């Protein structure tokens, strides 16, 4: 087994029983041998305001930016709201995007998502990719991790109960792990 990577993960949903939070919790559990995943809750990130930024970055924003800078990779779990990603996520991206030292620049990144609809956040994920262009992360393209009908895939405690989704997520963890190795030119 090669080097374990330190990953920052966050979900674009604030609710306690968020399927996207469940998704990253399960990725953390299933990926334990390859990835150390720290999950950040976005509840303390204030609404972006350029006046506030000029006075200095809010503590929660600075903390998130620093953690991303130090991490080997980032996982974003997006809900789908009205065919796009959530305002919570857009707000966070706006804070992260501000120069200098954009923390996502050159960073391995994976997008995942869970929704109650049949498209499983595919539309949200495409919009998210678009908004990340200027931040310049190196985004994993395949496998695409989208969990449709999310309300049927987790039990009441947020554990994955669907075998196919579990297999799919294990495959994703392997791919993201190899992606980070490739970007860091690790071949041993
Ligand atoms: C404002 C709003 C818009 C939504 N729009 C969509 C949508 O476009 N596509 C979809 O599949 N689900 C949609 N949903 C349902 C979400 O997939 C569902 O609420 C999901 O649980 C949100 O993610 P979370 O569990 O991480 O909070 C919407 C929900 C809300 C509250």
Key phrases:
188 residues, binds flavin mononucleotide, 6 helices, Rossmann fold, 6-stranded parallel sheet, alpha/beta, 16% strand
Explain briefly what this protein structure is.
The chain is α/β, with parallel strands linked by helices and 188 residues long. The protein has 6 helices and 6 strands; from the N terminus they run E-H-E-H-H-E-H-E-H-E-E-H. Strand 3, helix 4 and strand 4 form a beta-alpha-beta unit.
Characterization of the model:
The longest helix is centred in the last third of the chain and has 21 residues, at 163-183. With 188 residues, the protein is α/β, with parallel strands linked by helices. The chain has helices at residues 19-30, 50-55, 59-70, 87-96, 122-132, 163-183; strands spanning 5-11, 35-40, 73-78, 108-114, 138-139, 145-147. The protein is globular and about 50 Å long. It starts with a strand and ends in a 5-residue tail after the last helix. It has 6 helices and 6 strands; from the N terminus they run βαβααβαβαββα. The chain has a single domain, classed as Flavodoxin domain (Rossmann fold). Strands 1, 2, 3, 4, 5 and 6 form a 6-stranded parallel sheet that branches. Flavin mononucleotide (FMN) is lined by residues 11, 13, 15, 18-20, 79-83, 115-117, 119.
Overall pLDDT level: 97
Tell me the major beta sheet: 6 strands, parallel
Distance between the termini: 10 Å
What fraction of the residues are assigned to beta strands by DSSP? 15-25%
CATH superfamily: Flavodoxin domain
Query: What is the second-level CATH architecture?
Result: 3-Layer(aba) Sandwich
Estimated structural class: alpha/beta
